[in-house]
Amino acid sequence: MQEFLHLLRLEPVNQGASTGVNWLTCDSSKQTTITSPVDGGLIGKINKAGAKEYDQVLATAEKAFQLWRVMPAPKRGEIVRQIGNVLRENKRSLGQLVSYEMGKSLQEGMGEVQEMIDICDFSVGLSRQLYGLTIASERPNHRMMETWQPLGIVGVVTSFNFPVAVWAWNAMIAAVCGDVVIWKPSHKTPLSAIATQNLIADVLKENNVPEGVFSLITGDTREISERITQDHRVPLISATGSTRMGKIVGKACAERFGRTILELGGNNAIILSQEADLKLALPAIVFGAVGTAGQRCTTTRRLIVHDSIYESIREKLVTAYSTLRIGNPLDENNHVGPLIDKEAVHTMQEALKKLKEQGGKVVFGGEVLSGKGYETGTYVRPAICEAKNDYPIVQEETFAPILYLIRYKTIDEAISYQNGVAQGLSSAIFTNNMREMEQFLSPVGSDCGIANVNIGTSGAEIGGAFGGEKETGGGHESGSDSWKMYMRRQTVTINYGSTVPLAQGIKFDL
Ligand code: NAD
User: Fold this and answer.
1) Residue 144 and residue 137: Cα distance in Å, rounded?
2) Nearest C-alpha neighbor of 182 from the set 154, 163, 202
3) Interacting residues of 273 by C-beta distance below 8 A, sequence separation 6+
4) CATH number for the domain running over 268-463
5) Domain-by-domain residue ranges, the chain?
6) From the CB of 468, is ligand 1 less than 6 Å away?
7) Choosing from 26, 177, 297, 448, which is the catalytic residue?
8) Which residues have a Cβ under 8 Å from the Cβ of 184 and sit 6 or more positions away?
9) Would the CB of 263 count as within 6 Å of ligand 1?
10) Residue 1 has what pLDDT?
11) Distance 183 CA to ligand 1 centre (A)
12) 310: CA distance to ligand 1 center in Å?
């Protein structure tokens, strides 16, 4: 453990603000201490940034943008390529830290770093493909086209459950687009962010990248988060986290006409048809529901099961859950690690209580584990519950491993349950019936940003645009043409003729 902290150049006390290579000296009387949900061990302390450091980071980013935006995009891509290589070299140690600070399994921690590497590769290619359209002009001797210009400073607010990947999905794309990035990591997992900043600092230094292209700032919500969301110098905020946070950030940005990419809570369902191939479905359901201890935005929270197979599926799931090994996530034999903190454990217990009050039943698990290896009070046994879709608790996203089983009779009913929640992130159907599959993907099918057939709800490839509808926020980041959100669209018309035809055929003789 000591070794990966050392390799990532984390100190016992770290600073809460960086403009790239340089760390700013923050007030040592305002410290935060980060301990691990895995075993309660101290990972490190951070001197929190305040208003003074915020102003410094902003001013440096503003200056950096003047230089970065005129660097040819493929040259910016070359910096991103080198960042990808540094992440490759340090995949294990950064993955270990993510696992230790957040509590996800080591494999998932390293998988998260792999996603950072993948988005670097994607962005390098993108840096040569920031293309616009040429559009037919209605006027003679005119050419009309669309060009994409860098936007400015992008604020990236990230959630605890993906302490580093969410930043990369945004920052690497933004960087090749010519934007500069200020990262506000989760207050629960800031050391993974600080370690990432340490790693990329080497690349920034070797390439003389101006200070302010990649900055990081962490401190109290009021001092930092609220400030950045209200700051008119930051034209785009990409915020990942709860719907509660998204409502505040969305409103603050809208008031100043700032742009947002909001990646918020999910309440994801799998429809399990009587015509499903259970060999595919069962592992996908179990991984989707218990992976990252139910703390993924794409976690499977509801399983909508056909009436004819409901009882047998319930039994099969209970059998599968009984074999889950729960414990230290750095031990690769374990399937499920801890929740992020005791508050999350309490929220899970409250949700199970409410479920029972509302008429539901816990059929397996749900208890807080105690004894050797579980001294932190952050380990729980994943729960399988029986519920109805309209129970208020089922309508909420509880960020814990609770799987609600819901019975359906017709495919129309299943889809109406799937869509019958406020959130709209990820959805899936397991079926070999072509009609059911096509209906699920049709305009009357899933209303989510992600719709999968014969794979679960959890996780997504970086090549596609990632995001969800309704209270999930409507933002899209990562692959496809999400890069357009990080740029300013400009419609350009050039007259190469010798007259000036006015719009709408207006004559204006002088
Ligand atoms: P959170 O909302 O508590 O915090 C997320 C981030 O917002 C943190 O950096 C936090 O410091 C910051 N924040 C909190 N209040 C703020 C405010 N008033 N102004 C500005 N920033 C503020 O969420 P969390 O507990 O870290 O993460 C879990 C949530 O994130 C779940 O709801 C999950 O579904 C969601 N999530 C969504 C996606 C997605 O892509 N849709 C991905 C990961 C996580």
Assistant:
1) 6
2) 154
3) 306, 411, 414, 429, 430, 431, 432, 433, 436
4) 3.40.309.10
5) 2-264+473-490, 268-463
6) yes
7) 297
8) 155, 156, 157, 158, 216, 217, 218, 224, 225, 228
9) yes
10) 58
11) 13
12) 34
Residue-wise burial string across 224-252, b where 16 or more C-beta atoms lie within 10 A, e elsewhere: bbebbbebeebbbbbbbbbbebbeebbeb
Residue 297 known to be catalytic: yes
Q: What mean pLDDT comes out for the span 123-148?
A: 96
Tell whether pTM > 0.90: yes
The answer on pLDDT for 495 being more than 90 is yes
Q: What is the pLDDT of residues 498-509, one digit of tens each?
A: 999 887 778 877
- The number of the ligand 1 atom at minimal distance from the alpha carbon of 340 is 25
> Which CATH number does the domain 2-264+473-490 belong to among 3.40.430.10, 3.20.20.140, 3.40.605.10, 3.40.640.10?
3.40.605.10
The angle formed by the CA atoms of residues 227, 219 and 266, to the nearest 5 degrees, is: 80
**At 163, is the secondary structure helix, strand, or coil?**
coil
Establish whether residue 298 lines the binding site of ligand 1, counting it when its CB lies within 6 angstroms of any ligand atom: no
More confident residue, 93 or 1: 93
Task: Outline where 256-325 has alpha helix (H).
Answer: 278-290, 310-322
- Distance of CA 2 from the midpoint of ligand 1 (Å): 29
Q: Give the residue among 289, 160, 319, 177 at the shortest CA–CA distance from 236.
A: 177
